[in-house]
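Design job #97: recover the sequence.
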């Protein structure tokens, strides 16, 4: 059940429990300013910090950020190395801050292809923040939803019976005995593109999709508030009929948050 959300315009009754974000637009942000793409990635880390700090205040309990896809290995080696360096610094610098804030950090995706030492740093950060209950921050790193589903399906073949809940546990990783992550309520993609890019395909079956033109380094806590406010105005029917089944969905109140409307990339 969602918790009340406080926004500048008042209290909204139904905020999202699990928000997932495709953090798109770092490179374009830098190019537009005559800067190297790595500068955009550095600013993107700051945007991620803003969102992580704001999320618990908006009633968000699980936040999943798409940091690096399995397809991103195709990018130039120098850019990949810079991204891995930023991820290493993020883990090193933010672990104690997350622990103090009551946030738990975990990652999803492969670890065997990460640079030497990064996987160990991630494991140490996960252990140091394991007691966090205020926010579950999940960072998707070397992640592909299709690969995750395929891996879970292979492991499910050894089970006598498979339910949706059991499959969700397998998707969450480990041996399938852990607590499954709740389905995504709100999926946000910045940068104007309108696709999921192999991100949380199973978990987003009934997610509300919000595509915003703002490039990720410019995304602010106020933008997250606007997204949550837009979500609260949605009627989620999960295949059934609701009281307002014939109503036209209203757009977000804040400028810059425009769902399902083509924008110039």
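Job complete. Output follows.
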């Amino acid at each position: 059940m969602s918790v009340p959300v406080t926004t500048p315009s008042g209290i909204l009754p139904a905020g999202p429990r699990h928000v997932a974000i495709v953090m798109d637009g770092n490179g374009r942000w830098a190019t537009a300013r005559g800067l190297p793409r790595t500068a955009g990635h550095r600013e993107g880390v700051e945007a991620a910090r803003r969102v992580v700090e704001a999320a618990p205040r908006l009633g968000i309990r699980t936040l999943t950020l798409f940091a690096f896809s399995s397809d991103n290995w195709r990018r130039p080696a120098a850019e990949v190395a810079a991204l891995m360096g930023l991820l290493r610094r993020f883990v090193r610098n933010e672990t104690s801050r997350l622990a103090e804030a009551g946030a738990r950090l975990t990652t999803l995706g492969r670890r065997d292809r990460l640079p030497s030492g990064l996987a160990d740093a991630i494991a140490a950060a996960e252990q140091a923040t394991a007691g966090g209950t205020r926010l579950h921050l999940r960072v998707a790193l070397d992640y592909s939803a299709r690969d995750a589903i395929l891996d879970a399906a292979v492991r499910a073949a050894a089970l006598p019976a498979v339910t949706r809940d059991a499959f969700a546990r397998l998707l969450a990783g480990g041996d399938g005995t852990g607590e499954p992550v709740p389905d995504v309520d709100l999926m946000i993609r910045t940068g104007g593109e309108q696709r999921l890019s192999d991100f949380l395909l199973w978990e987003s079956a009934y997610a509300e999709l919000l595509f915003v033109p703002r490039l990720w380094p410019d995304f602010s806590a106020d933008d997250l508030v606007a997204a949550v406010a837009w979500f609260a105005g949605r009627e989620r029917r999960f295949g059934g009929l609701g009281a307002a089944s014939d109503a036209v969905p209203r757009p977000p109140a804040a400028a810059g948050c425009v769902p399902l409307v083509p924008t110039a990339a």
